[in-house]
Amino acid sequence: MKDLKQKLRDFLWKARNTFHYSSVRTSEFLQKHHMGFITRWPGWLKAIFYLAPALLLLGVFTFYPIFNSFFISFYTGYNIQTGEFDGYTFLGNYAVVLQHANFKQAVLNTTIIVFISVPITIIIGLLIAVALNAIKPLKSFYQTIFFLPYVTNTIAIGLVFAFIFSGNTNTIANPVGLGLANQIITFFGGKPIAWVATGATYWSAMSVILVYSVWNGLAFKIIVFLAGIQGIDKQYYQSAQIDGASRGKAFTRITVPLISPMIFYILITSVIGSFKTYSSVVAIINREGLITTGANGSINLKTIVFYIYDYIGGASENGVMSYASAAAIILFAIILVFTLIQLQVGKRRVHY
Question: 101 lies in a domain?
Fold first, then answer.
C-alpha cells in the first residue's frame, strides 16, 4: 500500500511538472507568433477559451441530442431514416405516451426502485463506511473488496444475481436445481421461492432487482462516505468523548452533519442513476423485461428507460421516434423536478 501511495505521489508530481512545462511552452509559442494578447485576456475569457474543447464535445454529444429530442417530440409521422415528417403536434405525442399502459407500469416500476433502493443503499453505505473507518487492520483490503462491484461489468453482475436467484416452480422441488438464495432458505427450514422465472410473482422479481440495485450501488457510496469521514477533525470526537457523548450521539451530531454535503451529493446522483435503471432488468429478467409465465400471468418489470428503448427499437416505423423522444423528455422532466426539490431541501438541511 505504501508503494502504491508513493507511486501515486510521483505520478501527480510528474503531471504537475508536465502541466507547468506545457503552460510555459504555450506562452512562448503565443508570444513568438504574435498571439500574446491571449495571455492578457480577462479570467472569464481565458476560461471559455480553455473550456472550448470540452464545451464542444458536450454540445455535440449532450446538448444537441437533448434539444433535438425535444423538437422531434413535436413531430408527427417522423421518419428517422429520411428526416421527413408529416406535421407538428403540441402535446399529442406526450398524451399518447402518458396514456400508454406500459408507460404507467414503467413509471411505477422505476418509482419503486428509486424510493426503496436509494435510501437503503445510502444508509447501509454510510454504516459500512463508519465501520471501515473504525477498523485498523486490513482496512485497505476491505476497501478494495467493497469497491470491486463499482469496476465490474453491470451485465456480468446481473447474470450472477440471476443465477443466485435461479429456480422456477418446475425445478425448485429438486435440491439440485436450487439457486444459492433458495439453498439458504431451505437450510433454515423455509420453502424455495420462484424468484424470476416460471411461477414468480411481481414482488419476488422486483425484490431481486432491488437487492441487486442496493448491492451494486454500495461501492461508490462507501468510498465517498469513507473519504468524508476520514477528513473530519478528530478533535470533535475527542471533545464529545470528554462530554460523555455516546457513539450514537457522536454519529448523529458530528459525523452526519459534517459529511452532509457528501450525503446530499450521493442522494442526488443516486436518484438520477436509479431513474435510468435499465441494464439490471435486462441481465436479471430478460431482454424483453417481461416474465410471461408468472404465478398470476405476465409480469411487466420494464423501467422508463426500458420503455424508451422499446420505441427506439421500432424507430424505422414513422412516428415511433417521436414517441421515444416524448418519453425521454418526460423522464428528463421527472428527474429535473426531483433534483430541484432536493436542492431546495438541501439548502436547509446541508451544512457546508
Answer: yes
